[in-house]
Write a structure and sequence with these properties.
Blueprint: H1 2-13, H2 18-28, H3 36-58, H4 66-86, H5 94-109, H6 112-118, H7 126-157, H8 162-185
Helix pairs in contact: 1-7, 2-4, 2-7, 2-8, 3-5, 3-6, 3-7, 4-5, 4-8
Length: about 190
């Protein structure tokens, strides 16, 4: 099962999974470091959505053309960026969790083909999917720790209002998402 843990971890932290990394950073931008519990709920929401479509696609129960998925993934990043600016202060963890889970559904389709090929020799999808998701969650936590460490260091150098940080990260995420959308349409 360690291969699936490594696969989940590598999937989220490698530059090949840049879209997922960017999505996680944009999602977390609305939270301050002291809101770490809400960030963990957010990450779990993404993993739940991601694993659901990963499993359904890998088992052949749903099929979305790769070109559509490659377009939808940056659209989710752009939408999360816009939501961060339009609705910057979530009143509860429900909205961000639902956004993360919903958009996680799209992101899960992006890796399902490769994951499905690996499952070809497995008797059950349960343990490989669990190990993959634990690796994914672990990688997400490390990314978020790095993100908030950077924020903490920059804040010590020069205080940054949290709303400015959110707008900056969301704007950068939106710009990169638009570039990815245009590339997928070309």
């Amino acid at each position: 099962m360690s291969i699936y843990f490594s696969l989940g971890f590598d999937h989220i932290v490698s530059l090949m999974g840049f879209d997922h990394l960017l999505f996680i950073v944009v999602l977390c931008a609305i939270y301050a470091l002291r809101q770490w519990k809400q960030v963990l709920v957010l990450l779990t929401g993404f993993t739940v959505g991601h694993s659901l479509t990963l499993a359904l696609t890998a088992l052949g129960m749903i099929a979305i053309p790769p070109q559509v998925v490659e377009l939808l993934i940056p659209i989710t990043i752009l939408a999360a960026s816009i939501l961060n600016v339009a609705l910057p202060t979530p009143q509860s963890a429900v909205r961000p969790f639902m956004v993360a889970a919903l958009f996680g559904l799209v992101h899960g389709c992006g890796f399902a083909g490769y994951f499905g090929m690996l499952l070809g020799h497995e008797e059950s999808i349960v343990l490989p999917l669990f190990a993959f998701n634990v690796g994914l969650e672990f990688g997400q936590v490390l990314i978020v720790l790095a993100f908030y460490t950077l924020y903490f260091v920059l804040e010590k150098i020069r205080p940054i209002p949290h709303t400015s940080w959110t707008v900056f990260i969301s704007g950068a995420g939106a710009g990169l998402a638009i570039k990815m959308i245009l590339e997928s349409l070309a």
